[in-house]
Inverse folding.
């Protein structure tokens, strides 16, 4: 894998107004923040099953993709986009929510299982490998009691962030956008170390 040379950044989420700013859509929120910061716009692509944009960082250009397939079939869009632009799996980073990480925590990994996340599972199935970079952003869990956690999972991930959580979320989004820029200049390992050690400021 070439250090820091990613060409496709994918944010996972669900399309449509009803899912905007929900916990499951934190991947979309990262890409939307990048687009706002760089004044770029997304275009809908039927052949890619998603919204696509292009931006540059450290003289490196890359694509931004938000699948419109719904979370459970995200891999279809990712596979189509890689194929259309002639990109390889080692040029991919997927940004995804993680219920097993506390709110405010970030984890950058070069590979790994789906951890039960349907969007990651779909991606693994369509790419036929677990060996792709993923940036996991903690959204916290609904309960530490297994039975209760299971029954409340759907409502939790499809629920909106609370107003008192938004300051924390903004810090996370800012850190992620900065670190994505650093990946191109410092490489995966050093930028990943920064992300993995991130600690948000307390109010």
């Amino acid at each position: 894998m070439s250090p820091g040379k990613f060409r496709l950044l994918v944010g996972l989420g669900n399309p449509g107004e009803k899912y905007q700013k929900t916990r499951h859509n934190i991947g979309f929120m990262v890409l939307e923040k990048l687009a706002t910061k760089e004044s770029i716009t997304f275009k809908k692509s039927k052949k890619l099953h998603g919204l696509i944009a292009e931006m540059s960082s450290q003289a490196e250009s890359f694509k931004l993709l938000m699948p419109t397939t719904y979370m459970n079939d995200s891999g279809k869009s990712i596979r189509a986009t890689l194929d259309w632009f002639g990109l390889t799996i080692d040029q991919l980073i997927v940004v995804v929510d993680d219920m097993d990480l506390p709110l405010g925590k970030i984890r950058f990994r070069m590979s790994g299982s789906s951890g039960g996340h349907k969007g990651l599972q779909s991606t693994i199935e369509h790419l036929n490998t677990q060996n792709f970079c993923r940036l996991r952003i903690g959204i916290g869990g609904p309960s530490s009691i297994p039975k209760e956690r299971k029954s409340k999972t759907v409502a939790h991930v499809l629920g909106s962030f609370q107003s008192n959580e938004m300051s924390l979320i903004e810090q996370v989004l800012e850190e992620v956008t900065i670190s994505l820029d650093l990946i191109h200049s410092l490489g995966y390992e050093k930028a990943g170390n920064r992300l993995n050690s991130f600690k948000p400021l307390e109010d």
